[in-house]
Structure formats: structure tokens, C-alpha cells
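Quick note —
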Amino acid sequence: HTLFSNFFDMLKCWKKTKKPKYTMKSSEETTKQPLLGVSVHYLCTIFEVECKEYLKGIGKDYSTAKVYDIESLRDPTGLIRQKGENVISKEDGKMGASYIDCLEDEDHVGLATHMISYGWGNRILDINSALRAYCQQMKLEEKQTYIWICCLCNNQYRVKEKMDSGENVSVEEFSKIFQEKVVGINHILALMVPWDTPIYNTVSSASSEFYTALVNNCKLNIIFPETEKIKLVEAFKSHEGDGHEKLLSTLASTRIQDAEATQEEDKKVILSMVETGSGFNSVNGKVNERMRNWVEETLIEAVKEAEEKSEDATTDLDLALLSNNVGKVFCNDGKYEIAITYQKKSIEIGLKVHGNEHCDTALYYNNICGGYKEMGDYERALDYGNKSLEVRLKVLGNEHIDTAASYNNIGIVYQTKGDYESALDYYN
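Predicted structure written out below.
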């Protein structure tokens, strides 16, 4: 399963529900019912225990298990369908209920406060860890934070029946339900796991869902487990690592029209909805922009945390590398003043630890040169470019590729400001 196919299946079986104490009498009334969600407390306690016991019985480990390991919509029934196997559905009065229909306690089920966007290929552990981290970050009570999650809130018996029959939803109906679902809950939590290959770059419905939340001014938070945040930050602390390059590439690569789906018919429907609506470029642009903002917010927080945890932030070389690479992200996004602020932090640390004659110091000088050049402040750009060149000549010599890069960068500055004679001197 992918997020696309399961979100689509959700829509095929869509009906809004009331709290357990209500009785739904008509289809018209049913469509007006608020959506229910499962509490984060329940997901991280009782549901987790159920998953561990079920997985142990089939020889799988909870730490690596994905959603489709507990319910594949194939026979025999998985954990999710087993829960409602002998329960009458509150939606249609038929035997075989959704998982959430089986929950009654207000600490376990309530009106949905959030909708999580994820994939059945995500680990259950990651989903729960990310939700718990979000509650802690936002200071939310886990027993009162109710998550609409398709695998538990959709009736998977009816989903399977629809899949087996090959029944499809029209583009018009799909669009209407899609809009009502996202806007109705009005707060989307997008699960970002793993950090360097976001699901929004590969799953059609996720990009559309993300975009729908944005254009309708719905609340939208990107969430991830603490372990993923640590991996992201570590990737930004290394010369050898390509963390920032991978991330910069990822942030500009969302193309909903290239995304995949389990069923080709599903993809055709959602792409038709997008194309006749806002269009591919609008969706891709909005999603990429919000992704960039998320990364920048996360990295700013990471630098602050690194400073607070450092024994001496003025001599912390990991902090210097982190700040330098964070600056690259902002520079790539055209936010040059912010970029230079972080890269100057790197310079200060580098000078204190290494002195002026060190490759890292030259690197930081060079990056600041680029920032000032993009801002049109050519004098400062040349100042830092020449500092970088001077260090590299002393440390690496005139024949080194990094020294050549400094000559080239200074030449670019002169060429940009229209001093072609000086530019040729440095190019040569």
C-alpha cells in the first residue's frame, strides 16, 4: 500500500461519523456528522501493545513493522479488521466495523482534532513517535488529541469490498470529498519520514492533500520522530556528507504528475482533479515552498539547540559546520542576509579554533563571498573572496582546485559588476 492508494480507498468509502452515543438515521444526516479520531494516548499505549502481540504471533518485530504488516487487506484478516470482525458498523448497520467503531472511552476516541497524512509503508513506531513528539512540542494533552488516521478510521471491510469489486469514484465526487475531508478537520499533520526522501515527492494524493490544506488556510504541521531530526542535523555537520545537497535537491523536486500509485486508475482520477483545478505547477510550487519553510524552521531550531547543548559554542567545530551548511540552505532559497548571518558564525568559530590559515576558514570566507555577490554588495563580496584566496594560496598553493575555485569566484564577482578586464585576469 502507498499513501495514495489508501487515501483514495478512504475516499471511496467515505462517510462522516458521530460520537458513539449518537444514532445516524439518514444518509443526509450522515454526511453532516463530525469525524472521529483516535487519541494519541491510545495509539501509543493500547494500540501499540496490540500491535506488538499481533506481530509476535506472525513472527515480525514491532520496531521494523509497517502499517501493511498489521493489515494488508488480504486474507486472512489483519489486526485492524479483526478488531471489528464481530461488531456492527455504525455507518451502515452491517457486520464488520471499522477499528474506531470499537472504541468508546473518551480517552480513546473523540472528535478529530488532526488528520495525519502518511503511508501504509511507514513504520508504526515512526507514526506513534512523531505524534507523541508533536504533542510534547505543542504541549498538547495526548488523551485529548484525536487523530483521523485512515487505516483505523475507515471501515477496512468496506474498503476491501470496493477494491474487490473494482468500483471507482468519479473525479467530481472525489474532488468534493477530498476538499470536505481536509477542510473539515482543518489541521493536517504531514509525516516526514525519512527526512531526505519526503513522501510528498512520490505520492500523488499527498501533494494534493498538502496543497488543499495550504490554499484553504488549514493548519498544517510537518512532523517527524526525534530520531529523524537527529539524522537530519548530523547530516548537516559533516564535510564529507551530502546532507544539504540531498535536501536542497529534494525540496525542489515535487512533481505530482510524476508520482506513483498502487492502482493506475487511482492516479488518473487524482491527476485529473488537479489538472482541471489549480494545475500541476501551482500544486508543485506550493508544496515545495512549504517544504522549504519547514526545513528552514527545523534547521534554525537545530542551531539553537546545538548552541545550548555545546560546552563552548565559540569553539564548537560541529556547530561551525552546521551553521555553514544551514547558511547554504538559506542562500539557495535567496535569503542571503540570513545565510550570511549563519556563515559568519562559522567564521568566528573557525578563526578562534584554527586561526586564519586553515581550509575551513577559507571555505567559510568563500561562501560569504557568494552571498554578498548575490545581494549585489560587490565590494564586500570581493573582500571575502580575496580573503578566501589568500588563505588557500598559503595553505594549498596555487595549483590546487580549491584555489582555482577562489580565482573563479572572484572573477564572477567582477564580471557581474561589469568589470570584465579584472574578471579575465582572475579567470586566466
